Structures are given as C-alpha cells and as structure tokens.
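User: Quick sanity check before I run a bigger batch. Here is a single chain. Can you write out its predicted 3D structure?
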Amino acid sequence: MTFVGFYNIMIAKGGDIIRICRVIKIIILFLSLMILVQPINGYTEEEKESIRVGYFLFDGYNDIYGIDQKDGYGYEYLQKIAEFTNWKYEYVPGTWQEQLAMLEKGEIDILGAAQYTEERARIFDYPNFEIGMSATGIYVRQDNENFEYGEVEKLDGLIVGFMAGDDNRVFENFCKVRNINTKNIYFGSQQDIVTALNEGRIDAFVSDNLRNLKTEKLLMSFEPVKSYFITTKGNKHILDKLNFALAEIKKENPDYDKELFAKYYGKIDTKMHVYTKEERAYIREHPILKVGYVVNDYPMEYFDKKDKKPKGIMIDIMDLISEYSGIKFEYVGYKGYIDLLEGLKKEEINIASQFPNNIALVEKYQASLTKPYMHIFQTLLSIDDRPLKMHATIAIPEDRIDLIYYIERLYPEVDIIRSRSYDDSVSRVESGEADFALQNLYMMEDIMRTRGQIKNFEKKILTDEKLLLCLAVNRENGTILPRILNKSIARISFADIDTIILGNTRIKQDSLQNFFLQYYYQVIAGVLFGVIAILIIIILAKNRKVIKLQRLAETDGLSDMYNRDGIKKEINKLLRSGISYHRVLFIIDIDHFKALNDTYGHPFGDEIIQLVSKCLKEQFEGRGIFGRLGGDEFVVFLNVIEKEEDIAKEAMRLNRAFRNIQNSKSCKLTCSIGIAKFPESGYNFDTLYESADKALYYAKQQGRNTYSF
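Assistant: Done. Predicted structure follows.
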C-alpha cells in the first residue's frame, strides 16, 4: 500500500493518529525539499551532441530486428555510456573493413569492439578502459563430427574463413608453430562467413567470441584479450568523454562487462573455457582429488569444530571450482603452513589451497601454480599510528614463510620477529616486543571489530603490492590438472569473490559485553527503532481489516490483479504525484479469445486468463502496475520509458511471450496491444485509455498479433 493510502486510513482513526501522521508528513516534506534542491543532471534533446557510430551487423553484438530496432552487447554498452555524456547516436551501417577506413578518415567517431594491436594503435586512439574481454576462436559446423575441441591439427590443408580487416596474426602464428597450413579466404561480413560455412565453401572460420553461436561449435579458443571502443586519431574531445564515461561505469559496477556478456551470450565459460578431450578424460579418471588446507587460518580456511567440516574463503572458492570442473574435492587439514607445503611435495595431496606467486617457494616445493584466483592486501597492526621506518620490528608467524619472503622483499630494512601464531604476534605488539603484527586484511578486520580490549589498535594497509594467491599442484602430476584448474578459475567473477568474502567475514562477537561496548550508539538506536516499530505494528493491526476490505474491493478474483476500479485509482494516483517521468500505458487483448471460450468452454477460458496474468507478472513485475479490466482485456502501466524504440521492444517481447504460453489444449496464443504515452497522449487514466484503445483497434485492423501507438 502507498504512503498516501496509509495516511488517509489513519486520519479516520482519531486525533492521536492524526498527530503522528502530521509529524511523518513534515519529515517526508523536509526530505523531499532536500532532494529537490539538489542539482539535476541531464540534457534536453537539443543539448545532446550527435556522435556517429559504426554499426556493423554481428550476432549478439550489433543486432537489428523488426523495423530498425537495434540490440546487442555493443549497442547496450553505448546506451550506458550515453548516461554519462550528452551524446545521441547516429548509427552508420557498413562492413567492419569499411568502417575501419571510415574511422581513420574521421567519417565516423566511434567503432567497437576492437582488440588492441600496435598497428591499430598507430592509426586509432584507444581509451584507458576496455569494454570487456574477447577471445579469438576457431569455429566449425555444429554437425561436423570430424572435430573435437582442441583437435586443431586437423585443420591442416583445409579452407578457413576470415573477416576482412581483422588482425589474425594470433591464428597465423599458432599455425606456423604447429606447421599447420590452411587456405585462407576473406569475407566482407560475418553473415557471409557463416553462409559459406553452411554451404561447404569453407571448413572453418576464425572470429572473436562476441557473437552468438547458432549452427557452429568452438574448436579452439585463444587467451582472452581486452576489447575497446576506438576513436579517430587525435579526436581528444571524443576520447576524453569516452574515458570519463567508462571510468564512471567501472566505479558504478566493476562487473558490468561480465553481466552484459552473460545477458547476450550466456555463460562466459561456454565461449572461452571449454575442456579439451584430454582434459575431459582426466576429469573422468580422477573424479575425487585431495586438497590440503590450514585448519586455523580464519577466515581464509579453518576447521569448524561445531559443524565438523572445513570452512572459509578458500573452501568456498574450491566449491565453485568443483562445480565448474566436475571434480569432487576431499579436504586434508594441516596444522601449519609449512606442513601444508611439505604435504604437497610428498604427494600426500593433489592440490594446495593457497600458494603465493613466489618463485623461490615454487622451486623449493616442486610446485606448478595456477593463475591467481584472488589478491589480498596485508596489513600491519600497531598500538598507535607509528611510521614503518628502518629497523621497525614486525611479528610474523614462523611457519608463514610466504609472508616472511613477502616482507623481506618489499621492506628489507625492517627486522622480523618470528612468532608462534597470529595471536602470539598480536600479544607481542601489546607487550611492546614488536612494533607491528602482520595480518591479512580480512583477519585484521575481525580483530579490530571483535576484540574490545584492543580497540586502541591502529591498522596500516600495505598498498605497495598485493599478495597474489594461486592453487598449487605437485610438478610431477603434469600439466593437465593446472590447465583444468585455470579454466575453472577463469569462470569465477569478481562478484563471486566479493560474495564469498562477505559471507566469510561477518563479525563474530566474543561476548555480549564487548558487543555492547563497541556498538553502544548502535544498540541505543536499535532500541529506539524497535519501540517505533512496535507502535507502527499496533497502528497497522488496527487498520488491517480496513486495508483487507479495500484490497478485496480493488482486486479481480480470477487474475489476482487490480480490477478496473483498482487500476484506475492507482494510475491516477501516480499521475497526480507530480513526478514528471515518461510513462506508457499498454491495453492488451487476447486475440480470438471469444472463439476459444466458445469452442473449449469457460473453464478453459479461465485457464487462459490465469496464464496470461502470470505471463504479465513475469514480464513486468517491479517495473509498473497491471490489472484486468474485464473479459480478455488487460492493462499494464510502465514506469520511466521515454524512447519509442524502447517501448516497441517491450511490446515485441510481450508478443513473443504470449506465443510461448503453454496451455492444456496446446492452442497458440497471440495478443494485440494498444499503446499510449504519458504525457503526450493524456494526463489521466481515462484520456490515456481512450488513446490506447484507438491504437488497439488499429493493431487489430493490421491483423492482430502486433502493437500500435
């Protein structure tokens, strides 16, 4: 229920409630004024700068469907960039090779996605930030059973297709090293290449993975590299704005590239990290591997005595690797870090859970390392904010030789005190024997927040160099297992790591007393909030019956949506709110509903109404309000949609969703949609409905299964 409805109900309940509501209303008014005085960022259409963008067709990256409706990874990235600039785009068609030439001449302003090469960097300007990763791959027909993933030697003597203008030196060098000779044919567009493959004029083709696979399968994928939007050489105005926008996008969401990739191409691993025939055989032959971990290295890895199993950041990362690779892990606990490394050297375990990227340790323990799966800052704990100067003393657990090497290399002028454990390091700082205790960042946060008796401690984060953590396997085990682990690690996103860290570093208080001492003001605020919450609950309980009756009067029983009165009331309430968002009203009719109802009976008609209601909720939940006006007529009111092309996309998606509705009679369902825009087509429900109803009539005249404005 909206605040306005809640307020109106409480007004009817007496003077005390009126006074409470007046106070709440004053607070909300004050906050609203604070918001209103903030500067508003935005540009009118007249103020926007027109930018010419090269738009070559590439499945999943630059798509066109319907009447010039654009979509894809590159298109959506450009819309995101426009949120931070005053750009509007003019899309210039052409092939990749044609548009590279146009960009060089300054006939277009931006083109993407381009991998970095020194030759291109001499001709074009690259921004500071990439728009994602792309991997060059070799593709063959999906039904070609002569090729398994990784069997590139079979390309010898075959015909391979390339896109004209692409830099294919990675492939050429790969073939040269392996003495593979191919006949190369160049094409103007990706569609021409796919057509040639399907017609048998080429046996394979080379492309990057920023495209949707349809009738092809991946034969070989090279190491992913960064992709960029590039600009004409010397166009500093465009480059500066592009750099600013990309930097803001990275700050707002560091995983934006990966999320966009998943949206348009599915799982990243299906494009980049396919296991070879040899690797799949290894996984089948080694379904369970032993992983060594340290039992007391909280929160990285430790043995939980209560649940009687290993836990921690590393254990959760290994669980993800297990999920991605299909290999099960059996955990072997070690009391100390040196014991873990010795266990790996003696082949008691197959994998060591955390191994620093340190050449000396790699050689000493005969290890092969994976790529780093995470980095971690180290911190220094001290009684006061003292400087890290020559001959300062740092306490480090004696068996953490990785950390001892780390400090000796970065700060050769300090003196190291070897302690028995992390706790012993802290005790030596408390006693004055050591100036600092070295801890990892996550352990340090736990100490700073949970041990009330050392609240006067200060921390210093060592930002000179992050400690890179890898998995390690015994060198005698060969190279297959490290390759499998690397491909699994590559599938783990920054968001995955952040979630795992957050889940393992929640504060565990030593006692209620320490908790109260450390969070005194938060406790008081919590008590006050609790009292206010109880008062609100009492008020809500008194009004529950009124609210329930009101809800029943405004709800359609069959669809569990607003009925005509309810949806009209809610839409008018939004429009009277004074918020000048662009909104849109859809009126939706089920095509030929009366015929279906007459043919199969009213129970089937009721089934269709309920299925359509479910479909509308799935499509628009959280983005607007919806209701059933009666019969087969539905209405959807969407928030903040301004561009007509975005509205058209919503309508087309809804048409597609209707065609996919499964029902008990296997009838194909379609719908007609009439569209009215606020404020252009009206300022209240009645005027918007009248406009949308006329558009609906026109959509039906066009043959149904479509939409009209």
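The chain is about 45% helix and 25% strand.

User: Great, the batch can go ahead then.
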